[in-house]
Write a structure and sequence with these properties.
Structural class: alpha+beta
Number of strands: 14
Helix content: 25-40%
Radius of gyration: 22 Å
Distance between the termini: 6 Å
CATH topology of the largest domain: Ribosomal Protein S5, domain 2
Strand content: 25-35%
Largest sheet: 8 strands, mixed
CATH architecture of the largest domain: 2-Layer Sandwich
Order of helices and strands: EEEEEHEHHHEEEHHHHHEEHEEE
């Protein structure tokens, strides 16, 4: 049998929005993300230079050169630590990678809460899988991408990576982060659309209180398990809140209350979409924000200002903070025809209050990771079948 060997590939993996269900994924709860048309694109070529590798960031005009035998995790700054993490994890799995040259660029604003890091890791790993024919299954790449972020110090759940690989155009995903079961369903926003407002307040999850929130949830789970037979917070129902209130501190109860009620909101939003009730979707988005602000305490004054402004505008059906928190983006469900006038008013008032600008990002719901192009070497290799 005659076969070609791949010489180069170009791949992309997207960022995501999360319509509802924040800070529930790492408690094996429910989320409703969607892949978007902002992404990270990698081009990779086999170097034919032993184990020497070179990775070039187009956006930062920086190059990382190394011998793959010497890669360790993860003492680099910036994007280089993500490259290290992926390669170390593949090595730990006994997967051999030879030398390669790569370049990448992205359209996702860093620190915006729409998963620039998950997009980068997923795109890089997907590219290696394509270039070297590693035969990794999607779930393997999802879990490896998640573990790469854990190596770096972000104890994230599986949502970002899952939708980056599995998203589909014009579809949202209802994902059970415990069982990994998911449903992709069409959403009809009619004369409305999703709009991101970037607060331009950066967050660095590894250096924020993100990991503290997860630790609190895990500590609370151990206490609750003395009263209710569960394996994760994602199994709790709203009716369980009266029971668990007696076994948690008031501080812990606030955190768990958010997780339980947010899981319930995910299912209510799914039903609202099914019934084409966008008004109800928007109201549940506002409720989710209030819980993230008051119970989980991961919002900030800039994001709260954006959401409060939205409440005063009939053109916006709903708004909420999105992502890890402490900055980043607010997600709006807004009338298409009012985007320009709304954005002008908001930016003017935002600058007046904070002395720097917010920015708007118009997005579309897009596909998950895919191979865009590939090329093969010119020599046929004869293989016996």
């Amino acid at each position: 049998m005659n076969t070609f060997t791949k010489q180069s590939v170009t791949v992309r993996a997207p960022g995501r929005i999360n319509i509802i269900g924040d800070h529930t994924d790492y408690s094996n709860g429910f989320v409703m993300p969607a892949a978007i048309n902002l992404d990270t694109t990698f081009k990779l070529d086999k170097s034919h230079n032993g184990t020497f590798c070179s990775v070039y960031s187009v956006d930062t005009n920086t190059t990382y050169e190394f011998d793959i035998k010497d890669v360790k995790c993860c003492n680099k700054d910036s994007w280089q630590k993500y490259i290290d993490a992926v390669l170390v994890l593949l090595k730990e799995k006994g997967i051999e990678i030879l030398g390669f040259n790569a370049s990448f660029s992205g359209t996702i604003p860093i620190g915006s809460g729409i998963s620039s890091s998950a997009s980068l890791v997923s795109s890089f790993l997907y590219g290696l899988n394509c270039l070297f024919d590693l035969d990794l299954e999607l779930i393997d790449m999802i879990q490896l991408s998640q573990k790469a972020e854990h190596y770096i110090g972000v104890n994230c759940g599986i949502m970002d990576q899952f939708v980056s690989f599995n998203g589909q155009r014009d579809k949202a995903m209802l994902l059970n982060c415990g069982t990994k079961e998911y449903e992709l369903f069409n959403i009809d926003l009619k004369d409305h659309t999703f709009l991101l407002i970037n607060s331009n307040v950066s967050h660095e999850l590894a250096n924020s209180e993100y990991n503290i929130r997860r630790d609190t949830c895990e500590r609370s789970l151990h206490k609750i398990q003395n009263a209710i037979n569960i394996e994760s917070l994602g199994e709790l129902n709203v009716s369980d809140l009266t029971i668990i209130k007696n076994v948690l501190t008031p501080f812990e109860y606030k955190r768990v209350k958010h997780v339980v009620e947010e899981n319930n909101r995910v299912h209510l939003v799914r039903k609202a979409f099914e019934n084409s009730n966008l008004t109800n979707v928007g109201q549940l988005m506002y409720e989710g924000h209030e819980s993230l602000k008051n119970n989980y305490e991961v919002s900030c004054k800039e994001i709260d200002f954006i959401v409060d402004f939205c409440r005063e505008n009939d053109s916006v059906l709903g708004a909420r903070m999105m992502g890890g928190g402490f900055g980043g983006c607010a997600l709006l469900l807004i009338s298409k025809k009012d985007i320009t006038s709304f954005s002008i008013k908001l930016k003017k008032l935002y600058f007046k209050n904070f002395s720097f600008q917010c920015s708007s990002l118009q997005i579309a719901i897009g596909d998950g990771a895919k191979e865009l192009t590939c090329s093969y070497d010119h020599n046929l290799t004869s293989v016996s079948s």
